[in-house]
Amino acid sequence: MAQFTTLTSHAVPLPAENVDTDQIIPARFLKVTDKNGLGDSLFCDWRYLEDGSDNPEFVLNEAASQGAQILIAGNNFGSGSSREHAPWALVGWGFRAIISTGFADIFKSNSLKNGLLPVEVSSDVYKALLEAVQLDRSTKITIDLPTQSVTGLDGLEATFPIDAFSKHCLLEGLDQLAYLLSFDGQITNYEQERT
Amino acid sequence: MEPRTLFQKVWDEHVVVQEPDRPAVLYIDLQLIHEVTSPQAFTGLRERGLEVRRPDKTIATMDHSTPTLPKSLWVIDDQAKAQLGQLERNCADFGVELFALGDSRNGIVHVIGPERGFTQPGKTIVCGDSHTSTHGAFGALAFGIGTSEVEHVLATQCLLQRKPKTLEVRVDGQLMPGVTAKDIILALCAQIGTGGGTGHVIEFTGSAIRDLDMEGRMTVCNMSIEAGARAGMIAPDETTFEYLKGRERAPRGADWDAAVERWNGLRTDEGATFDKTVLIDANKLEPMITYGTNPGMGMHVGESMPTTDSFDDPSQRAAFEKAMAYMDLQPGEPLLGQRIDVVFIGSCTNSRIGDLRMAAGVFSGRKVADGVRTLVVPGSHDIKKQAESEGLDQIFKEAGAEWREPGCSMCIAMNGDNLEPGQYAVSTSNRNFEGRQGKGGRTFLASPLTAAAAAITGEVTDPRSLLLS
Ligand code: SF4
Fold first, then answer.
1. ipTM, interface predicted TM-score of the complex
2. Which atom of ligand 1 lies nearest, measured to the CA of A27?
3. By the 8 A CB rule, do B279 and B456 touch?
4. Has this prediction a pTM greater than 0.95?
């Protein structure tokens, strides 16, 4: 998994609430057998017009969004299905962090396994960051994982929660399966005791 | 010992290791696999040179992109074919039992697990699918996981999990005629919203839950995820045991007796506390329908949609306006009488025999309205056979509905069964997200009764008007 320490980037504002995984990546793109190449289908039904050309009204297509690594999204982002294709598509497009007031459980867990950091902030902080970014799309936001802090313009600074284990894995770029496999002996004991 | 909730009991039983500041290593008793969320997990195993630790605790099915027409008419696109082929290969290579397309035991993953008796009280059950919550109806701890976690469980039979909080949803009282399990869960979604249960496992309690049969309980637990909760649970009782007894993979003989004794202990102790409790009065429930683009945007079928002014919070107002624009509906108007194009009766929420019987009761002796396409898709081959033995297929066909082969079908629209842009559907499935049933399609979620009633009248209808006449 990709390491995550500190990230400074401009951001894409997507203030809609309850953005579900079917919007992040519609089901018809789930017939793939690998993880790569899903970035082109990210937010597909909002992003492209009937004829397949870019929808100029959709924020991701604006020139100011290009190269952004941070998404600022409305509450309850990633609700719906368990498809890990959602974080794969977000990472495939180039995002490394999402700032919101809340994330759906499975989406959050999937993101953390793909080096995509869910940054949960209060609604005041969310509003301040969103406004700043909407006002000036070149506004840079810094997300620092070691101090669990997010910093915007005008000294705006806030902390965000993350469990110690996920933080450790992100900072080191560790993948959780290796950690799980280290319990092989205990798992075998457990299995034997139960039968 | 401290009094414990049902969830806590199942959790405690499955913790293999709990280190400080680390998630628990939680043992998984059963993993269900389907074609869409598993290929990358098996690829991961191959890349690391790992085996499936417990193929005997793993079963697979094909359901999401499978055709629902008779075999002679199958159209499977190349990508879906490749994905189905890969599942077949993966199961063969790693020794996993597969109920493949064409197998008489095939069906939707959350339908066949209980039906074959794999799903049992007290088990931990996972699947790369958010509606795994369905299996909690048996008092199992069952939840959806991502593909990375599918790989974790394949390799170690364990998951890293932080302990969730508990939410009691207490439904007391008695459902009125025409009101079903689906209406209970749609009412909960409307009450607490799609994020209301985030971070929690729900336990459904109360007399209205006890009165439900297993199919109704599965419908309720199925949509726990739509209220934001990863899992929903119901304590097992005689209804549960009655359903399971004699099922193919349920324990038998002395094992059965021992199991029932164990399962009888799986209930929340007197004095145990939940982190949160929500109350629903079953006596006051009415048939529900959604009007918007998430399952929380629901109301009684006879009500008017909210007005824009009724939302104080600007982002909620924006979400509502966006939903109204997508649905092309007017705020403040009623939905009754709204014309519809398609009715879908199926999905892991409402495709079981009881659901089909409910729908058939409405269809019986009636015709589907002109211009309405009606699809009835049983959840499994077993259900299809059962329905046919009862003559339900004849009722559907005579009414003018299409009687299909089992699968997820128009719930997720991956197999060619989909809405056309702009079409309105009343659907017994679980998600009304934009484009969920086909790009540009518009979904009203409702019970099998309400869906069947809409098929007959061609518009959104209170099913009680047909039940009484
Ligand atoms: S029926 Fe729908 S919700 Fe259920 S497993 Fe299939 S696609 Fe998912």
1. 0.95
2. 7
3. no
4. yes
